[in-house]
Amino acid sequence: xxxxxxxxxxxxxxxxxxxxxxxxxxxxxxxxxxxxxxxxxxxxxxxxxxxxxxxxxxxxxxxxxxxxxxxxxxxxxxxxxxxxxxxxxxxxxxxxxxxxxxxxxxxxxxxxxxxxxxxxxxxxxxxxxxxxxxxxxxxxxxxxxxxxxxxxxxxxxxxxxxxxxxxxxxxxxxxxxxxxxxxxxxxxxxxxxxxxxxxxxxxxxxxxxxxxxxxxxxxxxxxxxxxxxxxxxxxxxxxxxxxxxx
Length: 246
Ligand SMILES: C[S@@+](CC[C@H](N)C(=O)[O-])C[C@H]1O[C@@H](n2cnc3c(N)ncnc32)[C@H](O)[C@@H]1O
Description:
By secondary structure, the chain is an alpha/beta fold. It has one domain: Rossmann fold (3-Layer(aba) Sandwich), CATH 3.40.50. It contains eight helices and eight strands, in the order βαααβαβαβαβαβαββ. The radius of gyration is 16 Å and the shape is globular. The two termini are 16 Å apart. The structure holds S-adenosylmethionine (SAM). S-adenosylmethionine (SAM) binds next to helix 4, strand 3 and helix 6.
């Protein structure tokens, strides 16, 4: 198993109810995310480590000002990492599964819409099975992106991915399932997406650390070189993000 681990990942802790609270000096956050990106380049997942750091901060401010977030487990490091990966890969089509209030979705989509935009995308779709949360997420996203390039739909992510009629360049997984599968649903969603992903397409799976047990089959599958060209468990905080490339 390949991994990147920040030395202090166990001490770096956020309050889920105060997502905008600064947890460390900005330079330190940037350096740790840069080191993770470098590791992803060495693994062959990313072509380079460059992303617009000023736009990332503009994105962060806009989310803090305009999003209603009851709670989130996306730490500032994780927010920066997800934004940077999207800014570097520049997916024309991105689907995020299980977006709750939309914070995870916009961490991805914010590289293409709103004040953090650094490229043009075609379809950025957030999927949330709970209709009330999907409505809130859509409301949040509309404040940042009046164009509709980024949008949230109330549906089961397995169905949305299965019915999507085009290539999927980046898939973000965070759904916790509504039945016995729990986070194990990541595997089912990826199975629907896999044949639509071009070579080099990227999958991000949140909770690779604190849900490792529930994700065992998923993690085994993406870490098998017969399925994905490379996969790295990026451990910047207690949640973790498995980053895999086809
Ligand atoms: C725990 S939340 C993710 C929160 C996110 N990690 C954060 O920190 O903001 C998982 C979401 O997945 C949704 N969900 C569960 N199964 C789903 C499915 N099959 N399709 C889409 N969304 C789903 C749940 O309703 C829930 O809002």
